[in-house]
Amino acid sequence: METMLTVEGLGKSFKNKRIISNISFEVKKGEIMALLGPNGAGKSTTIRNIMGIMYPDEGTITFHNSAGKEIPRDKIGYLPEERGLYKNVKVMDILLYLAELKDYPLARAKERALEYLKKFGLEGKEKVSVEELSKGMGQKVQFIASILHEPELLILDEPFSGLDPVSQELFKDEIRALAQNGTAILLSSHQMNLVEEMADRLFLIHRGTRVIYGTLGDVKKEYANFKCTINGMNSGTLLESLPEIERVEQNNETAVLYLSRNVQPAIWLKNLPEELDIQELSIDRISLHEIFIDIATDKNLLKEAGELHA
Ligand SMILES: Nc1ncnc2c1ncn2[C@@H]1O[C@H](COP(=O)(O)OP(=O)(O)OP(=O)(O)O)[C@@H](O)[C@H]1O
């Protein structure tokens, strides 16, 4: 797959405080790359450097064959974290104005705008002023503005925040469809379930540096240890004494046992003591959400984290 965006060794400081350092990743044509990290990790700073809203102290950003200030940013679609369009302008006018700024043909922009307004349930709102829209409707218009000019690279900073479940599905479907049609997508989101459903690869940033970079499958294989949920009347002491357990979470008769790394569930199950009361038992890999929490709260994973080959 052709590489659309390359970020190499990116570093940025504000007032002598290091915010991000040595950030390197690629976004390829037709893939959804997720940029993840706890609040304040440096995601928006990374994105703002890509968008030329600020310039890096170190490193290079390349889009196709252009680098730094030469990057044709009108070929990129961007939904910023901070929402808001001009308030007293009509929906269609603002969409056409933004498309025109990117040198996109007006007739085509109008045709696409009508198509997307319909798709997002905003049919008939063309002449409504932006300030009369609800927050979710405004977000839909801003999303349409970011894709109207058919960008080759689309950068979405927290696109799902504040959306109801139906609108989330609409956004998800559209983002997937764009990727299938070849758009390279860089998606920053806190909603791990959505990232797990959508992303091909992910880059996890913590305190301004890389913690994980790889395909979703590789990340899960590498970091998502198994957990075993047992229903039964068992004492905390018995559960804690079981072999190869990292931690136990017990709530009445349900206990979740987080198994150590590289434990083979089939072998582990054979070694459980007979006195363990098992009414129900299930084994799963921990979710991306749990991996994220482990990393954000500096649990054991961080020590072992590194690069996976994407
Ligand atoms: N213009 C600025 N001047 C000084 N510090 C800044 C500036 N912009 C961001 N920061 C700091 O940089 C760090 C990273 O911020 P950034 O917005 O990139 O994080 P984020 O990962 O996008 O967080 P969130 O998930 O909360 O949006 C934070 O500590 C923030 O306070």
From TrEMBL:
Organism this protein belongs to: Planococcus salinus
Which InterPro entries does the annotation name? AAA+_ATPase, ABC_transporter-like_ATP-bd, ABC_transporter_ATP-binding, DrrA1/2-like_C, P-loop_NTPase
Tell me which domain of life the UniProt entry assigns to the organism this sequence originates from: Bacteria
Family per UniProt?
Belongs to the ABC transporter superfamily.
Per the UniProt record, the lineage of the source organism begins with: Bacteria, Bacillati, Bacillota, Bacilli, Bacillales
This chain's protein is named: ATP-binding cassette domain-containing protein
Q: Which UniProt keywords apply?
A: ATP-binding, Nucleotide-binding, Transport
Coiled-coil residues are none
Domain named ABC transporter: residues: 5-232
GO MF term set: ATP binding; ATP hydrolysis activity
Q: Which Pfam families does the UniProt record give?
A: ABC_tran, DrrA1-3_C
